[in-house]
Amino acid sequence: MDTAKVQAKILDVLKSAPNGIDEKARKQLFEDCDSSNILTVFNGLLAQGKIEILADEHKNLIYKLKEANLIPGLEKIEDQIVYDHIARSGNQGIWVRDIRTKTNLPMHTLSKILKQLESKKLVKSVKSVLAVKRKVYMLYDVMPDSRVTGGTFYQEQEFDVEFTDLLTQETLKCLTKKAESVAKLETGPLEILTRSFVTISDILKFICRTKIFNVQIKDNDIQKILQCLSFDGKIECSSRVEPSGETVECFRAVAPLISTPSIVRMPCGACPLSEKCSLTGRITPSNCKYFTDWLNLDSNELIQLFFNQNRKMSGAAGPVGRPMKYPYTLSAKIAQFPFKWHVNNQWIWKYYLIGVAVCTPLFYKIQKGANSAANKAKWAESQKKSGH
Amino acid sequence: MSGTSQHSQLCSILLREAYGDLAEKVAMCLFRFGDLTFSQLASHSKLKQSKLQTVLKGLINFGLVQFEMGVDAKSGTQSNTPIYNLCKGRVLFLHRYIRGVPVFIRKFGTEGEIVLDTLMKCGHECASDIIFQATVRILKTESDQNVASVLEQIKGKLTELIQFGLIERAPSRQTETQEKLSDFSTPGKNYSLKGVDLPMMVQRISNDILTLEDAEDQAILWQVSRKRVTQLLRDEMFAEALTGRIDCHAGNLVRVLLQLMADTGPAMADASNILHKPFIQSAVKNSYSGSPLEAHLSEYLQILSQDSSSLVKNLGDASGGEYQITLKSAILELTWSALEKITQEQFGTKGARIFRVVRRHQFILVDDIQNHAMLPPKEAKQILYTLVGQNFVHFREMKLGTGSEAGKTSTSYYFFINLNQLVRMCLEKCYLAQFSASVRQNDIVSKYSHTIQKESRLTSLYVTLKDQGAPQEQLEDIAGMLTLTEREDLQKIGTWRSQLNFSEYDIDNSILLFELYIQMFKGKI
Ligand code: SF4
């Protein structure tokens, strides 16, 4: 038998034996062939990565067809190895650097292979939320794990702030509505407290009724939001036994123990410059701008501010949170930039207007004089004289 | 606690405002150098001995300076040299007292508050003098009252205040007489004031003699108790917190429980003695008879013992229910709550969320913070680093072996909150805020001194002319001498000053909480 035939026979045999064949079976199958030839063919297949040799528990050699070989279109051994590693990573995916460490392939070769595999729609790249700018590879038809995609709160691997905020608001609304409705009951305080608790399924029902969200929200998502609200100090958790005997977690909206500590009712309490503030130097209480603004707040405005703040803190209504006193994000800085103050205090705005007011009649006069009929005639005459 | 620069600045400005420059100079010497003898004090303050004596006398009168006999270094026996020290808590007590005024009025009426105010103004005084001066004050505004009945009423109020503990014995001026008059001394529940001669006072007031001389009890001095005022305001702080959390009846129950704690054991212990339900029931009946609290007492007790404020603990069901006030854990909870709100004010809702995440997990990695706080990674990191920058959150570097290669380590940063440090930082911020408000107020007064002086001159002129029966036209002319801008300025100054004054006293609430925390968790402040 020539080499090609032996090779084909070996592959056929191995294909029909998914668990592989042992040394004894191999010898029996290829009794009629030259043993040195057989070994050369096996070595060749091994080098090509088409088969693999394993050892069983009795240390017997097992010849087995490599799984990647079942994938059509993967000719080169490197492609198969890379494909293998990607397949093994399952729905978690594998980072390109990890493939490189495991395969020892040069970067440009690896990139080429990955591109090829992607174009053949055998693998796909997915952006992981665990690290920005990190792509992981997984088989084309594998659904990425929620740890990679981030779950409901991520859209295209980006954290969906608006969605999360809206869901948080709706969850809190559900809890506060419940608390408000039971507070009106004419029963004992314990009954009011017990009835103000709601379970996760109650919240889910409430959210479904609002029809705000077009994605399916699961128990897990609400649990995460509730945990977040408890970090905001707006709700508390307890558990109760249902009639079925099952213990379920329940939640209720709570007011904070201290609504606003007295120290933050004046600017120094939340002042980022307090360490630099003293009787001498550039920052002193006498020239403090924060103080000036605070003192110039209309007292009615101040009362309104506290009132709103308390209402927000008790979570009764209105948006969650409040503008920060000292913004540090760019958009917040723009939103709170005192444009009006600068317009009032910068000389350029005022003098620009004065300049326009002064110049307009002057230019008007010049324009009118220049375009008057007499001047036009004079101009025509002078042109004529100069021979144009 | 040794005085920090913020604390010292605040004490200095308060002492100057309330007791004058010289008193401030002497007291601040004691603040800076600690315990000093008379001669040391004289050399540090660079005052003449006679002047220093007068100043010290005044400061001792107000309980700001205390003294004790020193110990001879060689023989180890008590020497005759007194050593003076400053009672720092008493300096800031003025603010605390003013904040307590509404509570005093609610509990003891206006007369009770006048008694306390009279005593505050003179530092320490004998009972006869307090009663006499308070009566004179009341008669000045309400002259048609019967003198004897007012005196009787004031005496009753003074006794009530002594029994409640708001007024306590002050060290006597003469130590030897203190021994002789020991029968006057120990105030208890049935304490009555001996040596107060009311008929003599009636006679003096009828004869328009508005001073008292040689009262029988002049050696027994009284002062406002700082400890009791603090305790009363602490109780109010808890009651307000639980009123906000549950309702006003829960707040009232807290008042009753804390009073019971003080009655049955030390008021500032970590936890109270066991309080049985029938005992609580009778106390509630005494104070809030017929209220919903009495009707639903068991329910309120259950709610309080389940609440996250951790103030009340249910120990069992023996005798209808056994309860304990766990003051230490409640102060811890309240401090956390205050710090979380401060973070919210300074860093926004998201900052407060990250702060709480770190608090809940004690030691946490940045990735886990992002996960729990439900914030975009970049924003979460930015806020976390700002919190670290402002010392609200701290971090520790941990080097862990990777296991794969010997000697190779990976570095992780664990974030945590150092509560003691944070409380001290916030306490200092409170001192700074009070100081800044005071400085700003002085600044406003000096900036507008011309207008203020003009207004006071015109007012006195107006009053004099009006008393002399000047015609309406002339009065209107005087009123018109104040221009429109000046009037607006005066109005503005009034609002600013009251706003600053209010804030100055209001901050004491936070100071009280932080001081209580330090006292409970770190020993003496
Ligand atoms: S006075 Fe102004 S600068 Fe100084 S701590 Fe207060 S707010 Fe900050």
Question: Tags for this entry?
Answer:
heterodimer, A: about 400 residues, mainly alpha, Arc Repressor Mutant, subunit A, 17 helices, flat, B: about 525 residues, 5 domains, three-stranded antiparallel sheet, 23 helices, about 10% strand, binds iron/sulfur cluster, nucleus (chain A), RNA_pol_Rpc34-like (chain A), WH-like_DNA-bd_sf (chain A)
Please indicate the count of domains of chain A. 4
The largest β sheet of chain B comes out as: 3 strands, antiparallel
Largest interface, counted by CB within 8 Å of the partner chain's CB: A-B, 56 and 69 residues
Q: Overall mean pLDDT score of chain A? A: 79
How many helical elements of chain A?
17
As a percent range, the share of helical residues of chain A equals 40-55%
The strand count of chain A comes to: 11
Q: Uncertain segments of chain B of ≥5 residues (pLDDT<50)?
A: 176-185
Number of strands of chain B: 12
Structural summary, described in words:
The complex is a heterodimer of chains A (388) and B (525). With 388 residues, chain A is mainly alpha-helical. Chain A folds into four domains: 3-65, Winged helix-like DNA-binding domain superfamily/Winged helix DNA-binding domain (Arc Repressor Mutant, subunit A), CATH 1.10.10; 77-149, Arc Repressor Mutant, subunit A; 159-253, Orthogonal Bundle (Arc Repressor Mutant, subunit A), CATH 1.10.10; 262-377, no CATH class. Chain A is 51% helix and 11% strand. Chain A is built from 17 helices and eleven strands. In chain A, strands 1-3-2 form a three-stranded antiparallel beta sheet. In chain A, strands 4-6-5 form a three-stranded antiparallel beta sheet. A three-stranded antiparallel beta sheet of chain A has the order 9-11-10. Chain B is mostly helical and 525 residues long. Chain B is 67% helix and 11% strand. Chain B contains 23 helices and twelve strands. In chain B, helix 2 crosses helix 4, helix 5 packs antiparallel against helix 7 and helix 16 packs across helix 18 (377-389). Chain B starts with a helix and ends with a helix. Chains A and B meet through strand 8, helix 8, helix 9 and helix 11 of A and helix 11, helix 15, helix 16, helix 17 and helix 18 of B. The complex binds iron/sulfur cluster. The site of iron/sulfur cluster has 11 residues of chain A, from helix 12. Chain A: Belongs to the eukaryotic RPC34/RPC39 RNA polymerase subunit family.
